[in-house]
Write a structure and sequence with these properties.
alpha/beta, seven-stranded parallel beta sheet, disordered C terminus, 7 strands, Rossmann fold
Protein backbone atom coordinates (compact mmCIF):
# COMPACT_ATOMS: atom_id res chain seq x y z
CA UNK A 1 0.00 0.00 0.00
CA UNK A 2 1.26 3.49 -0.82
CA UNK A 3 2.39 5.71 2.01
CA UNK A 4 2.51 3.26 4.92
CA UNK A 5 6.25 2.69 5.11
CA UNK A 6 7.71 4.60 8.04
CA UNK A 7 4.32 5.53 9.49
CA UNK A 8 3.72 5.23 13.25
CA UNK A 9 0.72 2.98 13.91
CA UNK A 10 -1.03 2.22 17.21
CA UNK A 11 -3.23 -0.89 17.44
CA UNK A 12 -5.44 -1.28 20.50
CA UNK A 13 -6.35 -4.84 21.37
CA UNK A 14 -3.43 -5.83 19.19
CA UNK A 15 -2.36 -8.98 21.00
CA UNK A 16 -4.81 -11.44 19.37
CA UNK A 17 -7.36 -11.91 16.61
CA UNK A 18 -7.97 -9.04 14.21
CA UNK A 19 -5.72 -6.74 16.22
CA UNK A 20 -2.72 -9.07 16.02
CA UNK A 21 -3.27 -9.56 12.29
CA UNK A 22 -3.48 -5.79 11.81
CA UNK A 23 -0.27 -5.22 13.75
CA UNK A 24 1.54 -7.76 11.60
CA UNK A 25 0.14 -6.37 8.35
CA UNK A 26 1.34 -2.86 9.15
CA UNK A 27 4.76 -4.23 10.09
CA UNK A 28 4.85 -5.98 6.74
CA UNK A 29 4.09 -2.64 5.10
CA UNK A 30 7.15 -1.12 6.77
CA UNK A 31 5.32 0.78 9.50
CA UNK A 32 6.39 1.14 13.12
CA UNK A 33 3.69 -0.57 15.19
CA UNK A 34 2.89 -0.05 18.87
CA UNK A 35 0.39 -2.45 20.44
CA UNK A 36 -1.81 -1.32 23.32
CA UNK A 37 -3.45 -4.20 25.18
CA UNK A 38 -4.03 -5.53 28.65
CA UNK A 39 -1.34 -8.11 27.91
CA UNK A 40 0.56 -6.56 25.01
CA UNK A 41 3.62 -8.77 24.77
CA UNK A 42 7.20 -7.58 24.13
CA UNK A 43 7.49 -4.00 22.94
CA UNK A 44 3.86 -3.10 23.55
CA UNK A 45 2.27 -0.90 26.17
CA UNK A 46 0.00 -2.34 28.85
CA UNK A 47 -3.30 -0.46 28.71
CA UNK A 48 -6.90 -1.16 29.62
CA UNK A 49 -8.75 1.17 27.26
CA UNK A 50 -11.77 1.30 29.58
CA UNK A 51 -9.61 3.31 31.99
CA UNK A 52 -9.25 6.86 30.64
CA UNK A 53 -6.20 7.57 32.78
CA UNK A 54 -4.40 4.50 31.42
CA UNK A 55 -5.23 5.56 27.86
CA UNK A 56 -3.87 9.06 28.39
CA UNK A 57 -0.68 7.68 29.94
CA UNK A 58 -0.22 5.22 27.09
CA UNK A 59 -0.58 7.86 24.38
CA UNK A 60 1.80 10.14 26.25
CA UNK A 61 4.36 7.33 25.88
CA UNK A 62 3.45 6.83 22.21
CA UNK A 63 3.90 10.47 21.24
CA UNK A 64 3.29 11.45 17.61
CA UNK A 65 1.41 8.89 15.52
CA UNK A 66 -0.04 8.59 12.05
CA UNK A 67 -2.62 5.81 12.36
CA UNK A 68 -4.84 4.45 15.13
CA UNK A 69 -6.48 1.07 14.67
CA UNK A 70 -9.13 1.34 17.37
CA UNK A 71 -9.79 -2.34 17.83
CA UNK A 72 -9.99 -3.36 21.50
CA UNK A 73 -13.28 -5.07 22.20
CA UNK A 74 -15.17 -7.43 24.47
CA UNK A 75 -18.02 -9.81 23.67
CA UNK A 76 -20.08 -12.01 26.01
CA UNK A 77 -22.86 -14.26 24.71
CA UNK A 78 -25.96 -13.90 26.91
CA UNK A 79 -29.73 -13.49 26.50
CA UNK A 80 -30.74 -9.89 27.17
CA UNK A 81 -32.65 -10.83 30.32
CA UNK A 82 -29.51 -12.43 31.76
CA UNK A 83 -27.14 -9.51 31.21
CA UNK A 84 -26.00 -8.36 34.63
CA UNK A 85 -25.11 -4.76 35.41
CA UNK A 86 -21.46 -5.69 35.74
CA UNK A 87 -21.38 -7.29 32.28
CA UNK A 88 -23.19 -4.35 30.67
CA UNK A 89 -20.85 -1.83 32.27
CA UNK A 90 -17.72 -3.76 31.28
CA UNK A 91 -18.77 -4.19 27.65
CA UNK A 92 -19.78 -0.54 27.28
CA UNK A 93 -16.64 0.68 29.05
CA UNK A 94 -14.37 -1.32 26.73
CA UNK A 95 -16.11 -1.23 23.37
CA UNK A 96 -17.56 2.28 23.33
CA UNK A 97 -16.01 4.41 26.07
CA UNK A 98 -12.61 2.85 25.51
CA UNK A 99 -12.80 3.46 21.77
CA UNK A 100 -13.66 7.10 22.44
CA UNK A 101 -10.83 7.60 24.94
CA UNK A 102 -8.34 6.17 22.44
CA UNK A 103 -9.72 8.21 19.54
CA UNK A 104 -9.74 11.36 21.66
CA UNK A 105 -6.13 10.89 22.73
CA UNK A 106 -4.98 10.06 19.20
CA UNK A 107 -7.04 12.85 17.65
CA UNK A 108 -5.56 15.42 20.00
CA UNK A 109 -2.04 14.42 18.91
CA UNK A 110 -2.92 14.21 15.22
CA UNK A 111 -4.67 17.58 15.11
CA UNK A 112 -1.71 19.28 16.77
CA UNK A 113 0.73 17.46 14.53
CA UNK A 114 0.74 16.18 10.97
CA UNK A 115 -2.77 14.72 10.86
CA UNK A 116 -3.59 11.07 10.57
CA UNK A 117 -6.08 8.26 10.18
CA UNK A 118 -8.32 6.57 12.75
CA UNK A 119 -10.04 3.28 11.90
CA UNK A 120 -12.66 1.97 14.30
CA UNK A 121 -13.50 -1.73 14.40
CA UNK A 122 -17.30 -1.81 14.48
CA UNK A 123 -19.34 -4.84 13.36
CA UNK A 124 -22.28 -5.93 11.26
CA UNK A 125 -23.92 -6.17 14.70
CA UNK A 126 -24.07 -2.37 14.53
CA UNK A 127 -26.27 -2.50 11.45
CA UNK A 128 -28.69 -5.40 12.00
CA UNK A 129 -30.06 -7.21 15.02
CA UNK A 130 -28.44 -10.32 16.49
CA UNK A 131 -29.78 -12.31 19.39
CA UNK A 132 -27.81 -12.75 22.64
CA UNK A 133 -25.49 -9.76 22.18
CA UNK A 134 -27.62 -6.76 23.15
CA UNK A 135 -24.78 -5.01 24.98
CA UNK A 136 -22.18 -5.71 22.29
CA UNK A 137 -24.58 -4.66 19.52
CA UNK A 138 -25.42 -1.39 21.26
CA UNK A 139 -21.76 -0.47 21.65
CA UNK A 140 -20.94 -1.20 18.02
CA UNK A 141 -23.89 0.87 16.82
CA UNK A 142 -22.63 3.69 19.02
CA UNK A 143 -19.19 3.33 17.49
CA UNK A 144 -20.61 3.84 14.00
CA UNK A 145 -22.26 7.09 15.09
CA UNK A 146 -19.08 8.15 16.87
CA UNK A 147 -17.08 7.52 13.69
CA UNK A 148 -19.28 9.83 11.65
CA UNK A 149 -19.22 12.55 14.29
CA UNK A 150 -15.45 12.55 14.62
CA UNK A 151 -15.00 12.47 10.85
CA UNK A 152 -16.99 15.70 10.61
CA UNK A 153 -15.26 17.42 13.52
CA UNK A 154 -11.71 16.52 12.58
CA UNK A 155 -11.75 16.87 8.78
CA UNK A 156 -9.75 17.60 6.78
CA UNK A 157 -6.70 16.84 8.92
CA UNK A 158 -7.80 13.52 10.40
CA UNK A 159 -9.71 10.87 8.48
CA UNK A 160 -12.00 8.64 10.59
CA UNK A 161 -13.65 5.49 9.22
CA UNK A 162 -15.30 2.36 10.58
CA UNK A 163 -15.01 -1.21 9.38
CA UNK A 164 -17.91 -3.58 10.07
CA UNK A 165 -16.64 -7.16 9.89
CA UNK A 166 -19.06 -10.02 9.76
CA UNK A 167 -18.07 -13.38 11.21
CA UNK A 168 -14.30 -13.59 11.70
CA UNK A 169 -12.55 -16.72 12.93
CA UNK A 170 -10.81 -15.25 15.97
CA UNK A 171 -9.98 -16.81 19.35
CA UNK A 172 -12.94 -14.87 20.80
CA UNK A 173 -15.29 -16.39 18.24
CA UNK A 174 -13.96 -19.92 18.73
CA UNK A 175 -14.31 -19.58 22.51
CA UNK A 176 -18.01 -18.72 22.21
CA UNK A 177 -19.06 -21.08 19.41
CA UNK A 178 -18.89 -24.86 19.14
CA UNK A 179 -17.67 -26.39 15.85
CA UNK A 180 -21.29 -27.23 15.04
CA UNK A 181 -22.36 -23.62 15.57
CA UNK A 182 -19.50 -22.38 13.38
CA UNK A 183 -20.54 -24.77 10.60
CA UNK A 184 -24.15 -23.60 10.85
CA UNK A 185 -23.05 -19.98 10.53
CA UNK A 186 -20.90 -20.78 7.50
CA UNK A 187 -23.95 -22.29 5.83
CA UNK A 188 -25.72 -18.92 6.01
CA UNK A 189 -22.86 -16.85 4.59
CA UNK A 190 -22.90 -16.55 0.77
CA UNK A 191 -19.12 -17.07 0.58
CA UNK A 192 -19.52 -20.11 2.83
CA UNK A 193 -16.95 -19.31 5.50
CA UNK A 194 -15.76 -16.98 8.22
CA UNK A 195 -13.25 -14.29 7.30
CA UNK A 196 -9.63 -14.69 8.30
CA UNK A 197 -8.32 -11.89 10.55
CA UNK A 198 -5.72 -11.14 7.87
CA UNK A 199 -8.48 -10.23 5.41
CA UNK A 200 -9.82 -7.55 7.76
CA UNK A 201 -6.25 -6.36 8.35
CA UNK A 202 -5.82 -5.89 4.61
CA UNK A 203 -8.80 -3.52 4.55
CA UNK A 204 -7.34 -1.58 7.48
CA UNK A 205 -4.07 -1.19 5.59
CA UNK A 206 -5.87 0.10 2.50
CA UNK A 207 -7.94 2.63 4.44
CA UNK A 208 -4.84 3.93 6.22
CA UNK A 209 -2.85 4.22 3.02
CA UNK A 210 -2.45 7.04 0.52
CA UNK A 211 -4.70 5.06 -1.83
CA UNK A 212 -7.75 5.83 0.33
CA UNK A 213 -7.35 9.55 0.97
CA UNK A 214 -10.96 10.36 -0.01
CA UNK A 215 -12.42 8.02 2.59
CA UNK A 216 -13.69 9.63 5.76
CA UNK A 217 -16.90 9.10 7.69
CA UNK A 218 -17.32 5.82 5.82
CA UNK A 219 -18.78 2.64 7.32
CA UNK A 220 -17.50 -0.31 5.32
CA UNK A 221 -19.04 -3.77 5.62
CA UNK A 222 -16.86 -6.85 5.05
CA UNK A 223 -19.03 -9.87 5.75
CA UNK A 224 -18.89 -12.35 2.87
CA UNK A 225 -22.30 -11.18 1.71
CA UNK A 226 -24.14 -12.11 4.93
CA UNK A 227 -26.11 -8.87 5.27
CA UNK A 228 -26.74 -8.47 1.53
CA UNK A 229 -30.04 -10.33 1.80
CA UNK A 230 -33.19 -9.79 3.80
CA UNK A 231 -32.76 -12.76 6.14
CA UNK A 232 -29.55 -13.26 8.07
CA UNK A 233 -28.45 -15.06 11.20
CA UNK A 234 -30.85 -17.43 12.91
CA UNK A 235 -29.44 -18.09 16.40
CA UNK A 236 -27.28 -14.99 16.07
CA UNK A 237 -23.80 -14.23 17.22
CA UNK A 238 -21.02 -11.72 17.15
CA UNK A 239 -20.41 -10.19 13.78
CA UNK A 240 -16.66 -10.25 14.17
CA UNK A 241 -15.67 -9.11 17.65
CA UNK A 242 -12.66 -6.88 17.38
CA UNK A 243 -10.34 -8.16 20.08
Amino acid sequence: MKGLAGKRVVVTGGSSGIGAAAAQRFRDEGAEVIVLARRPGPGGIACDVSDRDQVQQAFALVGDLDVLINNAGLSVRNPALDIAAEQWDEVVATNLSGAFWAAQAAGRLMLKGRGGVIINTASTNALVGYRYYADYNATKAGLVALTKSLALEWAPKVRVNAVCPGYVLTPMQEAEYTPEMLAEVNGRIPLGRHAAPEEIAGLFAYLASDEATYFTGAVIVMDGGETAGSVISGPGGPGGPGA
